[in-house]
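Predict fold of adenosine deaminase; 368 aa.
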Amino acid sequence: MMNVPAGVASDDPILQLPKVSLHDHLDGGLRPSTMLELADSIGHTLPASDAESLRRWFSESANSGDLVRYLETFSHTVAVMQSEDNLRRVAKEWVLDQVADGVFYAEARWAPEQHLEGGLELDAVVEAVQDGLEAGVSEAAAEGKYIRVGQLITAMRQADNSLAIAELAIRHREKGADSGVIGFDIAGPENGFPPSAHLSAFNALHQAYVPVTIHAGEAAGKESIHEAVTICHAQRLGHGARIVEDMDIVDGQGQLGSLAAWVLDQQIPLELCPSSNLQTDIGGTIASHPITGLKDLGFAVTINPDNRLMSGTSVSREMRLLVDEAGWNQTDLEWATVNAITAAFLPLDVRERMLDEILIPGFARVTI
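Predicted 3D structure, encoded as tokens:
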């Protein structure tokens, strides 16, 4: 069953726009109703006993400004994702919620090492998630909806096993398209855990031709971005919003530092997540969030939800906020979506076909 995506009216024409979601955490997108069922089945205590109260608790915690309380939200989602059956269900529903949001391509970003408490092995959790993703794709197809999804295998930057997780990604990537693994990421606390600390993992991925995106420029500043793109071979930047710290904007004109100029000139995609960024003290408001200024300067910005549950959001809601509060129009939304499909970790011919057959005609059919 598909849910109406968070934060938009059911008749909002933005729902009909074809979308791409590149920065979308699997453990940040569970349905509250599903969490209640799974928690009950394993004896895990949640902070609320009904779906609406639980949804509200997640939103309030994420908006509290208290990092400890924010991180607690993930302790609950991860707790119910420790068995193959639960992983399959969460992954399947994640796909169906993407479809309801108008997403035709999505990358499920998640950290297998966080799902071993029930005794599973790394390969087993990857395979369970893939089974769930495929079940979601099949159910959507049965309802006449198309979506393609892939797994972004993520290592936790505060841990010391990133090489093992990189090897996991390589192992499944080498199985071919059927494995579902399309790339690699590192996540977790950015301050104090620079990308270069995981250089052996990134070198192994680079040599195995596995695409990489790195959480950088969210909690830490331009040095994190510098390491991601110049040392660790990142093809994309997870967030990257703090690239503005390497520029001086006056009356809409940008004086760019060498790093910002490189990111712009190379068109390194920025996986920006406006609502989530406000919760981590980037931007202040949607209107003042860096995404609009970066768009106007020609950076390869993309629009993403990050954690749908914690931010009470969806790609459609992020688009609606940009239109209503930051002055975006449909052409801007299309341009950002073109950036996203161009940056997808997919073969070139697939990206071009999606652009020509889904994205461009889809935007032409809708007027927001």
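Strands lie at 19-25, 103-110, 148-156, 181-187, 213-216, 236-239, 247-250, 253-256, 270-272, 301-303.
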